Amino acid sequence: MSTPHIEAKVGEIAENVLLPGDPLRAKFVAENFLDNPRQYNGVRGMLGFTGSYRGVAVSVQGSGMGVPSLLIYATELITVFKAKRLMRIGSCGAIQPQVAVSDIVLAMSASTNSGVNRDRFRGADFAACPDFGLFYGAVHYCKSQNIPFHAGNILTEDEFYDDDPDGWKHWAAYGVLALEMESNGLYTIAAKHGVQALSILTVSDSLVAHKELSPKEREQGFGTMMKIALETITAEASA
Ligand code: HPA
């Protein structure tokens, strides 16, 4: 059985799924980091591949941008294709001076200004957090390899182009590290279905330092993040 957005057969997608926003990044990860990658999805150009890493089956599926798009793919992956571990590998904009372009951020929680959870929880606030095992695994791997990282609260936004260009400063005053557009949705839907989730982010731009990576660097310069993601998700799958 396929779904409206994923044309795979059940069994063609692994229990371990990496979720970049950009479908071309999914292709890049499959071709450069997985053994024997095979494309299972091309619907709407939202490419998905399954291969293996150190003998463990891993899929990589584009999620699109924003919570609503991510929720479509994550829901179908979990409920129909039986994904058990979902890991966002994405980019974020830093809003703290100590968080620099190219740095790694492990999202220990994801605040949001999105209306999705306000609707879901009838105006109350759900504290969206990652699976502890995946988070701990990523921290442990980074420490074992001497990879520097930041761990903390991030903000999942609904709009990339905010009406108020200084709106992020209020979140920064509360210690939020960075902005992106999907993790709150991922953590919430994983919690709903009792599966594991984590967002690992690379800083693509800094709103503090007014710096950014080029599009080419955005697509290809994320090797460290991918190594953390693959080592963590396959270790957790074998645990
Ligand atoms: N805002 C939202 N999402 C992002 C940003 C940003 O500044 N940078 C990378 N993803």
Detailed description of the structure:
The mean pLDDT is 95. The chain is of the alpha/beta class and 239 residues long. The chain has helices spanning 23-33, 67-79, 115-120, 132-144, 168-172, 183-193, 215-220, 223-238; strands at residues 16-19, 35-41, 48-53, 56-61, 85-94, 104-112, 150-156, 178-180, 196-206, 211-212. The protein has 8 helices and 10 strands. The protein has a 5-stranded mixed beta barrel. The chain is 34% helix and 27% strand. Helix 5 links the parallel strand 7 and strand 8 (178-180). Bound molecules: hypoxanthine. Hypoxanthine binds at residues 91-93, 157, 160, 179-181, 204-205.
Q: Measured on Cα atoms, how large is the radius of gyration?
A: 17 Å
The portion of residues forming beta strands comes to 25-35%
- Give the uncertain stretches in residue-range form: none
Q: What pattern of helices and strands is seen along the backbone?
A: EHEEEHEEHHEHEHEEHH
Main sheet characteristics? 5 strands, mixed, barrel
Q: Mean pLDDT score, rounded?
A: 95
Distance between the termini: 30 Å
List the bound ligands.
Answer: hypoxanthine
Total number of strands: 10
For the biggest β-sheet, the strand order reads 5-8-7-6-9
Coarse morphology: globular
Number of helices: 8
Class derived from helix and strand content: alpha/beta
* Overall helicity: 25-40%
